[in-house]
Amino acid sequence: MSTPRQDGLHMPAEWAEHAGCWMAWPINKTVWGARLDAARDAYTEVAKAIAEFEPVTMIVAPEHTASASMRCGKGCSMLTLTHDDSWTRDTGPTFVVDAAGNVAGVDWRFNAWGEKYPNYRHDAALAKRLLDQLGMRRYAPRLVMEGGALHVDGEGTVLVTEQCLLNPNRNPRLDRAAIEKHLLDYLGAEKVIWLAGGLEDDETDGHVDNVACFVRPGVVLALTAAQGDGNHPMLKENLTRLRAASDARGRSLEVIEVAQPAKRVREADGRRLPVSYVNFYLANGAVIAPLFDDSADGAAITILKDAFPDRALRPIDALDIVFGGGGIHCITQQQPAGPPLPPV
Asked: Pairing with 75, which of 42, 106, 168, 179 sits 20 to 30 Å away (CA)?
């Protein structure tokens, strides 16, 4: 089968117009434990905030459809599909578009972030089932990958981390060059910028969406940490690489720094939560931004407002989401505007 690049498709930037947003209702008690209901409240707040600006569809198991619909309200439609949990950035398709604006989907292989959870059969099949539901062309690379492990500028440049993509728990038979080729072929891109890694105790093994993202072509928002913090060495190396890099168009990157939350919030077992202000969602005309009841919240919100001056800003308390292992960006997946490209 051909690749998106061969067929003239590419992944658009997240600030391109959306048809809507995909989410999935939290259900995994192994992940959420006693925090499951709090997680559902937080997901509801995110869904309602996004629904002010674009349609939201919540993937929900049959037994939860009625309760999820009542909580989320009229702005959020329900799609009944069996699933294992609620991280559509990683389990849903990565959408790509052609020059005419037709939309297709990339169905990466999903192995629960390196087999960290034993029961992921339904989530591994979710992208295909969703694309079938949409009547949309599906591209299926032989690559274990998650949507939160990559970020694009829509003009040919991809951000990733070595810590995640080169981890042997994903694609042990592929070297860096082979992984990079898959990314370029299936994202329709021209250049990969490899950052060092992600945050301490991040069970995704360093997803880039916690540490760096494009805010517009040639401009990257990057997380920083104070000297002496456990995240400082990795984040400092990321900054060094970003400042030395150029994008696919040959532009040197402008780097906007945002400090991580000041408090080192921890799980009961001592693991540090991967809290990050970079982990936000761009809706049509808005930024759905995370807050952490932290002294650094105000400065981060100011930076996001300055980075996106033409967008409304909707801050959401994201701590109850992060306790499950991810953030606002991790629980959302944008679908670009445009008609579906039919299957071949």
From this structure: 106
